[in-house]
Amino acid sequence: MLLCFFLYGLIFLLTACTVTPTPGTPTTIVPTLMPTPTPDASTSSGWRTLRTGIAFRQLEAPGLPVQVVRIDPAHVRFVVGYDPTSPLTLSAWVARYGAVAAINGGFFDQQGEPVALLISNQQVFGYSYVDQGGMFAIDEQGKPHLWSLADQPYDGTPFVQAIQGWPLLVRTNGEAAYTDDDGQRARRSAIALDRNGYVLLIVAPGATFSLAEWSQFLASADLDIEIAVNLDGGSSSGLIAQSDQGGVRVDSFTPLPFALLILEL
């Protein structure tokens, strides 16, 4: 009798320790999203403070959530890192500069050179888009600017840092700016200014949106966007914001010749 109880107990323990694989577990690689901190007690908007001047939020979307980092330019400085001979993943750019946040930049060719205008530490590379796209620039006072190049062509005004993107996604009246839907969905990146003067770094880490859908999504999102422009998508898309309290980490799948980096003052 004692032997029977012993055998029944042993069978029970072995059964309890057996782990059954979950059916349908995906095997594809997805971007890593770092644990996020507790929402601010002072707000119900979903923003989570990562550090002074930097907050993070997720937006529900088909597939993976859209990741948004909000930057207060009064508490950081912006740098465009550029090295066409030794491109880096976004996480490697962050490590090189000790950045607290970063996003990939605009489009580049096979030689790692920008297909539009780029300014890195007052050095100018490439040529401006004409009658299309938008430009994000930092002046000597550290103030960010973002505008439509169709509405206001770049006139050579000196800036400390700048990147250009295409197409314009949200106009200054808050309307979707791109409606030519080709149905091609990919990872997407964008940079925006909201009506409070914050810089928004935005990435859709899944192949969820066409460009027209991306434009409509941002125009209708609860982000108070004043203007937004598309950055390089697909394997180039990446967004990182770091703190001891968590953050977001969507690394680029491919090395980047340049990136927009946010540094502490």
From TrEMBL:
InterPro entries: NAGPA. Keywords: Signal. The keyword Nucleus does not apply. Residues 1-16 form the signal peptide. It comes from the Bacteria. Residues 97-245 form the Phosphodiester glycosidase domain. This is Phosphodiester glycosidase domain-containing protein. It comes from Chloroflexus aurantiacus (strain ATCC 29366 / DSM 635 / J-10-fl). The lineage of its organism: Bacteria, Bacillati, Chloroflexota, Chloroflexia, Chloroflexales.
